[in-house]
Specification:
The protein is built from 13 helices and no strands. It is mainly alpha-helical and about 300 residues long. α4 runs parallel beside α8, α8 runs parallel beside α13 and α11 runs antiparallel to α13. It is globular and about 60 Å long.
C-alpha cells in the first residue's frame, strides 16, 4: 500500500511539474504576444536575412566554389544553415540569460522554495526564446522556397526527424553547461565563457552555416568536428538538397572512418554528443544550484 501511495505521489508531482511548466510558458507567450510589433519584425528580419543570402547566391554563380556533395543550389544550402542556426541558437544561447534573468529579478529562491525541480523555472522562461526562434527556422525554409528558388526533398522523413531531435538535445546540453557557469563559476556579470567559445567562436567560424567547411584550412575543419552543428548540417544537406551525394566523405572524421557511410556516421556522432553534453550539462547545473543554496546566493539581495 505504501509503495502504491509513493507511486501516486510521484505521479502527482510530475503532473504538478508539467502544469508549472505550462503556466511559465503561457506567461512568456502572453508577454511576447503583448508586443505584437515584435512578431512582425522577426518575420521581416527572417525575410531580409534570406534576401541577403539570395543576393550572395547570385555572386557564387559561375564561380569555382564547389558545394559538393550538397548539390549546386546555394540558396538551399544556406537556408538549411539558417534553419539549424535558428533552432540551435535558442537551445545553446538561451539557458544562461534565462537563469540570469531569474537571479537579477530576485525570484530564483522563491521558485525553489516551491516543490519544483531545479529546471522547471528556467525551462518555462526559455519558452519565449522557443516561440521567438523556432518559427524563424520554418520561415527561412518557406521564404527560400517561395521566393528565392530553394528546393528541398523529404525522402527520409524519419531520419530527418531523428537528426532534428539530436541537434536539439546536443545543443541544449551545451546550453545547460553554459547556464551552470552562472552559479558554479560565478559568471554573473562577465562574458560567459562556454557560450562565447562555442557559439561566438567555434560554431560561428567552423559550423558551415553559409559556406562549405571544405573551404576552411584543415585545422579549422578538425576544430569543427567537435560541434554537433557540423554533422547535423552535413546530413541535412545531403538528404534534403536535390543532387546531394550520400556516399562521398567530406568531413575529417568521415575520411578517418570511411567504412561507415557519412550520414550514418553523422547520426552516430550526434547520438554520442547528445549522450555526453546533456548529462554533463544536467549535472553541472544541479551542482551550481546546490552551491548557491549553500552559499545563500540563489538570488540578488538588495
Amino acid at each position: 500500500m505504501s509503495i502504491t501511495c509513493r507511486k501516486g505521489a510521484v505521479t502527482a508531482l510530475r503532473f504538478k511539474e508539467w502544469d508549472s511548466l505550462v503556466m511559465f510558458s503561457k506567461r512568456e507567450f502572453i508577454i511576447w504576444w503583448s508586443y505584437k510589433m515584435n512578431a512582425l519584425m522577426w518575420v521581416l528580419d527572417t525575410l531580409f536575412t534570406t534576401v541577403i543570402f539570395f543576393m550572395l547566391s547570385l555572386v557564387t554563380r559561375g564561380s569555382d566554389v564547389s558545394f559538393f556533395p550538397y548539390g549546386g543550389n546555394y540558396v538551399s544550402f544556406v537556408v538549411l544553415g539558417l534553419f539549424v542556426y535558428f533552432i540551435s541558437f535558442t537551445n545553446l544561447g538561451d539557458p544562461y540569460p534565462r537563469v540570469s534573468r531569474i537571479y537579477w529579478g530576485g525570484t530564483m529562491d522563491l521558485y525553489l522554495l516551491s516543490p519544483l525541480s531545479y529546471f522547471t523555472p528556467m525551462l518555462g522562461i526559455m519558452f519565449r526564446g522557443v516561440i521567438d526562434d523556432y518559427p524563424r527556422s520554418v520561415l527561412a525554409l518557406l521564404f527560400g522556397w517561395l521566393f528565392f528558388g530553394a528546393v528541398f526533398t523529404f525522402h527520409a522523413p524519419f531520419t530527418l526527424l531523428l537528426i532534428l531531435i539530436l541537434i536539439l538535445i546536443s545543443t541544449f546540453g551545451i546550453g545547460m553547461i553554459s547556464a551552470s557557469s552562472f552559479y558554479l563559476l560565478d559568471f554573473k556579470q562577465q562574458t560567459e565563457p562556454v557560450k562565447f567559445i562555442f557559439q561566438d567562436v567555434i560554431i560561428a567560424l567552423t559550423a558551415g552555416y553559409y559556406y562549405p567547411i571544405t573551404v576552411l584550412p584543415y585545422q579549422l575543419q578538425v576544430l569543427g568536428s567537435f560541434i554537433p552543428h557540423t554533422y547535423a548540417l552535413d546530413a541535412l544537406r545531403r538528404l534534403m538538397i536535390p543532387g546531394g551525394d550520400t556516399l562521398t566523405p567530406v568531413l575529417p572524421l568521415q575520411f578517418a572512418m570511411q567504412n561507415i557511410k557519412p550520414i550514418t556516421l553523422d547520426i552516430l556522432v550526434l547520438i554520442l554528443m547528445s549522450a555526453v553534453f546533456m548529462p554533463i550539462g544536467w549535472f553541472l547545473y544541479v551542482k551550481g544550484i546546490e552551491r548557491a543554496r549553500r552559499d545563500g546566493t540563489l538570488t540578488r539581495w538588495q
